[in-house]
Amino acid sequence: MMPRFYCPFCSPHYQIYKKRAGGQMLCGQCGEPLVKIPVVKPTQIFALIAASAFIAPLLITAFAFIQDLNKPQPRRSTQLIKIDFEERV
Ligand SMILES: [Zn+2]
């Protein structure tokens, strides 16, 4: 796979690339050397962190709920939890 490049000084929508004799990629507009695009963009990493921060509490809640169900409980308290749950729904 060819490494992708971009110019950090020009708009990503209007980039013209040219290759120098040495094989280095240059911007066709400002002549600056192009920067290699990383495999994972920092914005993607941030999105991943944001997504996991949003999902993590849900997973922890679900896990705690499952653990709670597996716990042997006296009948009365189980019924109370069930009633409470139904009232919330
Ligand atoms: Zn440029």
Short structural description:
This protein is mainly α.
Could you characterize what this model shows?
The strands form 2 sheets. Strands 1-4 form a two-stranded antiparallel ribbon. A two-stranded antiparallel ribbon has the order 2-3. It has 2 domains: 1-37, no CATH class; 42-88. The chain is rod-shaped and about 80 Å long. By secondary structure, it is mainly alpha-helical. The chain is 48% helix and 11% strand. The model has no long low-confidence stretch (mean pLDDT 80). The longest helix has 29 residues, at 42-70. It has helices at 42-70, 75-88, and strands at residues 5-6, 17-19, 25-27, 35-36. It has 2 helices and 4 strands, in the order ββββαα. It binds zinc ion (ZN). Zinc ion binds at residues 7, 9-10, 27, 29-30, 32.
Number of structurally distinct domains: 2
Largest sheet, spatial ordering of strands: 1-4
- Rg from C-alpha positions? 27 Å
> Quick one: overall form?
rod-shaped
Biggest sheet architecture? 2 strands, antiparallel
In total, how many beta strands?
4
Helical fraction: 40-55%
Q: How large a portion of the residues is in β-strands, by DSSP E?
A: 5-15%
The overall pLDDT, averaged over residues, is 80
Class of secondary structure makeup: mainly alpha
Bound molecules: zinc ion
Poorly predicted sequence stretches spanning 5 or more consecutive residues? none
Order of H and E elements: EEEEHH
Measured between the Cα atoms of the first and last residue, the distance is 52 Å
Q: How many separate helices?
A: 2
